[in-house]
Structure formats: C-alpha cells, structure tokens
Design brief:
Elements lengths: L5 E5 L4 H11 L4 E8 L8 H10 L3 E5 L1 H9 L12 H14 L1 H4 L3 E3 L13 H11 L5 E2 L11 H4 L17 H10 L16 H12 L9 H8 L1 E6 L2 E5 L3 H9 L6 E5 L7 E4 L4 H14 L8 E5 L2 E5 L4 H11 E2 L2
Parallel strand pairs: 1-2, 1-4, 2-3, 4-5
Antiparallel strand pairs: 6-7, 6-12, 7-9, 8-9, 8-10, 10-11
Helix pairs in contact: 4-6, 9-10, 12-13
Keywords: ATP-binding, Nucleotide-binding
Protein name: 7-cyano-7-deazaguanine synthase
GO molecular function: ATP binding; CCA tRNA nucleotidyltransferase activity
Length: 333
C-alpha cells in the first residue's frame, strides 16, 4: 500500500491560499493548513475558520512571534514601502513549515502566491530568494502559478499532476474569483488588510518604536498598543496610550501590566490609559488632564482618576494649554 501524500499549506484564510489548498486536495493529497501568528498578522478569526470548514480541512495555528520580530528588525532583503519585510517573512514561514514536515508526516509545502501579484515580493527573482533563504529548495509548490515556474519536487515525483495546476499571473483576481465560484467557495475576505506592516499609518508609529530602540520582543506590547489607541510620545521611550472607545479600553486593560502607569476614571466614565517609561510629574499631569478632556466632564468639572490603584483629584482644565500640549505630543495617524 502506497504512503499517503501530505502537504502543509501556508493558510491566511484568504482566497489565494484557499484555492491553492483546493487544487492540491482535489488530487488526493491530504492538506494541513498552517496559519502563522505574529504580532502583526494571523491568529484565529471567524473568516479563516469558515473558509477552512468550506475546504474540509483543519487549521493549525503556528505562533512564531519572537522569530518574526527578529526578521522585522533585521531583514536580509530589506523592507517594502512600509515596515513590511515580505521576502524575509515568506521565507521564515516556509522555513518554519519545513521544520514541521516531520511532525505532520508531510512531504512538501504549498502556498497561494501568484507570480507578479505583488511586483516587489512576488516576481520571479523574489520567489527564488524566498526559496533560497527558507532552505526549502524544491519542496515548495505554488499551485496557482506552478506552470509558470520550474517543476518542483512534488511535480517531478508525481505527488501532484502539474497539468492540473494553474498559470495565473498578475494583479487581477478575476480568474481566482471565477474559480472560487466554480468550486462553490464563498465568504472569502478581501486581499487587503492582512498585515499591519503594510499599513502606512501603523508603520509610521512602529518606526518611532524602532527609532527609540524598542523594536524587540521584550517590548512587543507596544506593537499592540499603537494599533489600539491614541499615541502620545513625550520623549525617547516615554509614551502614553489612550483608548478611544469601549473596545480599545478593553484592549488597553488587557495590557495594563506592561506599562509603568495605568489610569482610568474613578466614578467618572472616560478613556483608559497606559503610560510607558519613566514619566515625570508634568507628563503624569498631562495624562490626568487628558482624561478629564476626553471624559464626560469635557475638562470643565472636577473629576477623580485612579492611577496604579491610587485615587487623584483633577481640577478643571485650561483647555487652550492642553490643546497645545496635545499637538506637541500626539502622533497623528
């Protein structure tokens, strides 16, 4: 009896990775989907789970936050337009998947990459760089554009039929959408918005963290705080994060122990705040007055705030001076 062929798939939950899995699975290969989780993308979400259900596969979540942070800091092939080290990132995912082949008794790895879909990170040269840096060589199969690339080991060995793979290239997604319809695949997410490192506003904030020498795994809470809140920078490594709404306040509360200061209203509804770094008296006063400004009191009445479990009174605020300080410290975007 011949051995069952298995493949590991890089699975974001999006259309391309779903189609790549479907193409290989329909050839009798057992596919195990790997969703890679970093501080900037991935993780359990309803759309990915629904897509996996449509495909009839199980999703395994692979946490590689620490290793990914290191390649964000020092990418071999540099970054894209923003903070995104796409070539190094894809290489790392393939590398980690390769390390998991034995665990899952799998023979090769697939992905939904399309030749030319991303001009800088998915051209022929970039795909070769990914293969080389990952150390996976010819064990990588890209089913959506395989006919445009040299045959991989899975094709040469007959694990998959090359003739049943595709030759999609370019940025248009019309073919993928038509194929998805023919397969009956629905409710797939749009291709935009997957990785925070491609977002200009987020990248601008992260560059500040990097400039201040805090782009490290030890300070990874900052990577999350800058996406959940208003961001104020007093000086190098001295920040204030302020919630905008209930959801952001909840996220800030989850991370309250990662800062040096946790501020919230005492009997007065308002934003929750985390101070990071050794804040001085003036900076703490700014935080108190900012709470008053954003609270129901709008800075016009006396309020009380709790800072690290101690209650403080905050007098009505000089709004003109406060607005000047907001303009001085706030990182807009």
């Amino acid at each position: 009896m011949s051995k069952k062929i298995k493949a590991l798939a890089l699975f974001s939950g999006g259309l391309d990775s779903a189609l790549a899995i479907k193409l290989v699975k329909d050839q009798g290969v057992e596919v195990i989907a790997l969703n890679f989780v970093s501080h900037f993308f991935g993780g359990k979400n309803e759309k990915a789970e629904k897509m996996a259900e449509q495909l009839g596969i199980k999703v395994e979540y692979v946490h590689f936050e620490k290793r990914h942070t290191e390649i964000v800091k020092n990418p071999v092939y540099g970054r894209g337009k923003n903070m995104n080290p796409c070539i190094d990132c894809h290489s790392l995912m393939f590398k980690v998947a390769g390390e998991l082949l034995e665990k899952y008794d799998a023979q090769f790895v697939i992905s939904g990459e399309v030749l030319g879909q991303r001009p800088m990170s998915q051209n022929s040269a970039a795909l070769e760089k990914v293969k080389k840096l990952s150390g996976m060589n010819d064990l990588i199969l890209r089913p959506l554009c395989a006919k445009l690339l040299p045959p991989s080991k899975p094709e040469i060995e007959g694990w998959v039929d090359r003739e049943k793979l595709l030759d999609i290239q370019g940025r248009s997604r019309h073919r993928q959408m038509a194929i998805a319809e023919s397969y009956g695949l629905k409710e797939y997410p749009s291709p935009a918005g997957g990785c925070l490192l491609t977002d200009p506003a987020y990248s601008d904030r992260l560059r500040i963290i990097e400039k201040d020498g805090l782009l490290t795994e030890e300070n990874s809470s900052l990577f999350h705080l800058i996406k959940y809140s208003r961001f104020f920078r007093f000086a190098k490594g001295k920040y204030l994060f302020v919630g905008r709404d209930h959801e952001q306040n909840e996220k800030i509360t989850e991370l309250k122990d990662t800062g040096t200061l946790f501020l919230y209203g005492h009997k007065t509804p308002g934003p929750r705040m985390i101070g990071f770094g050794d804040l001085n008296e003036d900076e703490i006063l700014f935080a108190k007055e900012l709470f008053s400004r954003y609270s129901k009191g709008k800075g016009n009445t006396e309020v009380e705030v709790t800072i690290n479990d101690k209650v403080y009174r905050v007098l009505p605020v000089d709004m003109e001076k406060l607005e000047q300080k907001i303009k001085m410290y706030q990182i807009v975007g």
